[in-house]
User: Fold these one by one.
Assistant:
Number 1:
Amino acid sequence: MSLLKTKRTFHPTEDDKNWKILFELHFQNLQSLNAISTLWISGFSKLGMNQSRRPLADRLTQAIKPYTGYTFIQTDENIILEQIDWYRMIANYQMPLTSFVRTPEELEYCDEPDIWHDIMGHIPFLAEKDYSDMYQLLAQTYITAYESSRSDLLKELDFIGGMLIELGLIKEASGLKAFGATFYSSSEVFAAFKPENQIQFTLDALVSGESYDRHSFQGKYYIFDSLEQLVDLIDNIRTRL
């Protein structure tokens, strides 16, 4: 007998309570590891978010407009877009938000995409112009590679999008920091900060076509040098189109 999964939706009062618990618990986790990127904290400070309640799409759009101009679109979906659809939205300075807030019991792992990850993992970074410019370059390069049927280059771009932008670690002046969006919404950040799970990024890794499993912890995490290094990697791919 098959079981139908109940569609998850917003429940404002419960969501605000869960949001507060998630925020306080996870921020303590990040601080305990000294893991918070200066890029993330700078972007977060621009958004005026109240940790006691779930921010709404129109409020986030209003807050980010002076900086990078994204529009956040609230949906009633809890699905992961195809990469090409995601990047086409990003290239148009749009980002969809999914339809529910996970519970505190799901902080370690949530089996569906939720708005906690959307907001905490992506939006503070997108408020920073240097990051946004990099992400725009990635989106536009991905679209061109897709329309040119360059599967070899799409593999490299998927590595950047998955293994670095979702799960990467960045070197900063004050030490190693969480760059991957996943780490700002999940306790996978603890696994990422175990030295035995860390790997220095090389170009060999880029061309390997390695991708990550969205349904479990990755178990290995690449360290790269700077945002500028990401821009150079994407630029190099763009020149080969």
Number 2:
Amino acid sequence: MVNKFDVLIIGGGPGGLSIGSLLAREGVSSAIIEREPTLGGRYRAVRFHGCRSDNGVRMPTAMVRTPKETYMYKFLSSMGFPPEAKVVDWTMGKVSKDNPNRIEYFSMDPKKGVENFFDFFAFGSGLPMEKPSRQALMKAFRIMEDTSEEECRKLVNVTFASWIERNVEDPIAKAVLELAAPLMGAPATVVNYGAFANVMGTFPRVGALLFWYPRKGNMEDMVITPLANYYKDRGGKVLTNRRARSILIEKGRAKGVVVHNNKTRFIEEYSAPVVICAIPIFEAVARNILRPEFLTKDWAKAIELCAKLSYEDLTGFYLLREEVIPRKGPGWVHIFDSDYGLPTYVGDWCVGSLYNAVEPPGKQLIYSYIPGGLPDTPFGLTTPMDAVKEANRRWETAVEKVFPGFAKAIEFRGMTLQLNWGRYSWAAVPTELDMQSPNIRGLYFGGDTIRSVTSMVSDKIYQMVFPLFEMIMKYIRS
């Protein structure tokens, strides 16, 4: 087997496949090293009980008005397969045992911008926001709107809580901003202001965050299958069932990767002057793939802080004997349960048909989505199952309140826990982790665990892929 390449890519998820496809298009010899039997990462599809669906509930998210403006759409279009997309409403629903069979809905309206937060406050609390608090909140959002991406990048070492303390006096406005912090997956005391300002500045700039999904098929169909075919058709090598053990570094330069072949059980060595780590950077360090002695002090600290926010999210798969949640109407809803005092977020319900899931005739697939990292869902990488069961119970109880008979209709219940959707990179850090190692030549980073000041979630990968490609090509040519 050939073991010499121009570039080695660790990780065959959307990040690794994207940079690999660009390199293959230029005739650069490369290999993707993937520990699983197939490519796809978190965009792999799963099959069970006659169903085919996404492995987890993932919607591309961005800070623009339409799917065609996203980095993801532009990248896939440039590769020759522009996706057909549908926009998905960002909807909240409030349930209570005092109002059986009923649910109050609230959807973000892109035309309202920051006004969405005033309406959301009234929806959640049952009280309108008074004028002084509205003015204070508007002022805070204007500051975030006016902070450029470059300025945000310089503020990744400032916590959002400390920024609120210095810039917002009104107690209600403070509370609203602090309660908004869980959107970033962690308390305001640990997420950085730069990332938060870049995201929340979207509301006055374009109205609201954009959520969208393929019109046909799932994420594997839209992203993984076409990219994998493109990569292999242009000479890219795929090395599956191989677990990276160590990035080889000599005299400050990347030299290759040592892997463990899961089938033969043998150790294999591949050489290349460029190595791209497209798996989570904190995972690479924890597994000693990237040894700590090859990190600068500020990078080592930043990776440690990001790792502390690397919670797992829970997706539940509920195959029902009959249709219980109407297919018409909101297919994706954040559920707030009023029976905990204040309306308490307990997770999302997601209708399988919204995600183009394949279902057995006459049956219905429903997903739950319960993010980790919140006070009631402390799902770490070693998640205690009693916490998972309690989160599931709260979610199922909330759904039952508005759709009685949901529990009895369950024919199959399954779940996955997987690394959350990019919030780890929003930690307050001494320096922003970037695409190129500061001290090792030929070592680069892809995927979504680097750069906090970017577009959102999946879109982030495609914002970075062209600059990463240009860096690598310049290095190879030199």
Number 3:
Amino acid sequence: MTEIAWSDLPVSEFRERPAAMTIGVFDGLHRGHRSLLSSITGDPELLPVVVTFQRHPTEILAPGSFPGFITSLAQKRRELESAGISLVVLIDFSLEFSRLSGSDFLQILINSFDLRFAGIGHDFRCGYQMSMDGEAIRSFLDNKSVRVDLVEPVRHDSAIVSSTQIRRYIRAGRLAMAEHLLGRPFVLDVSGEAIERDGSEQWISLDGRGLLPESRQILPPPGRYPATVETEHGEKHVRLTIGENSVRLPLAADTRIRYIVLQENRVT
């Protein structure tokens, strides 16, 4: 999978093959997102392209309300590649970018790719103050000879599968439900975190919002959780303790931790 920065567009080589594209934050790469990705990977003649964000727009526009990520950027990259995506355009969202109109945003994509198809989420909006909705995007791209599919949401028990709902489940400690909507276990990416040691424990200090500092991932509520820890030497099953200010693991878990897989609700 190739990754390029939005600021590097246009790149002429990417106009050599017709493209199919989808756009979004894709936090969690849940079952609903997978439906969107499937819409652009079905035609082998088309280059599947995802346009996504390095930082969540809320971090810039309303930093006090940023809820934290479900997945780290590294996790998102791996999930996109495993879904068959060939090219990712990564936007480093900023106040300047937020002032770009929806039509200008889409025109840059038209100028950068031989775009033939776009799979758009039912609730996706773009442009300054989110002024362009799915129907407006469809109308704009239709006029550029781009076929558009407004992809219907995936539902569970009549409710729409969404990143917002998954965050609620994780925050409530309902990890089994979060796993069901994600389509895989909830995984903490700790590969870039500073892990400290003390006595029989090692720990990661959380930031002031209760998020992992590097990945800015959300955490379930304080308590003890069964977990699988992935290290350079394989997997180990442990019980970790999530507190108000830290995540703590036994030293036996190994200090070269990459990922922590949480599959079950907390235990007493």
Number 4:
Amino acid sequence: MLMPTARHQLVAEVPQGSFAHDLASAFAQQPHTISPKYFYDEAGSQLFDRICELPEYYPTRTEVGILQERALDIAALAGPRAEIVEFGAGSLRKVRLLLDAFDRPSRYLPIDISGEYLAHAAAALRHEYPALDVHPVVTDFTQRIQLGTSPSGTGMRVGFFPGSTIGNFTPQEALQFLAGAAQALRGGALLLGADLVKDPALLHAAYNDSQGVTAAFNLNLLARANRELGTGFELDRFAHYAFYHPVQQRIEMHLVSRCRQVVDVCGRQSEFDEGETLHTENSYKFTVDGLRAVAIRAGFRPGPAWTDPDRLFSVHWLWA
């Protein structure tokens, strides 16, 4: 592995908080871990859209079912002329369920780190909803976001954070994100999707699909590094590995080195042993009461919480 001096030089050569910086830091520390936000370049976003359509991946269709069933209830809580702020907007598919149900929604701010993908999705949405002010925001929503004041005539500001992306945070990060959202949405509310604790076999199947799309999504992080940073990863030397940790109540996703190898990370070489992993994602699962308790600590007041009949997934209305 790199000596400490070399590690410090490696991290110092690139801007802090950038993909290059965080990848270099991941390979310079033990255990190796990197934020899952770097999955979502355009290729990664497209792969995730495919994951959402897989038969094994229950979260998307289950959450969509809850939103469809409860759309009018949610609209009544939001009131007329609502402004919707979606964190980690992605393809903008789920927000259409709200836009169709809400009473004359006035403004939509989709926030995402993948600028090109967001621009395409926002353009399509403008075409479908010409009366809606669509204002995409390309930024890292995991950092504190300043939304400013809403335009005159706008109703309640409603945050939308579907997909159980909250589970990708550590418990402390989740608390920090929710506290920041509570401040940004003060006087409004947050509509939050959260995956629930369940049979580990269902979880294992969801993150190890038979078509290998999740594996391709995981490996795309290294492919993205090759494209954007000129790294020298050989993708066939890494394997996708995902498992459920029952004590931590989370899925862990890793890239496992198939052999002893030397990897080129941002112009520096680092040894990687056979079986050594790069930890790419956590996906925490919740109970309804556990999620509500975190929300209260962050400054929200819990409102209604809805689940599907099998209690696979939950959707929460949280007053800010």
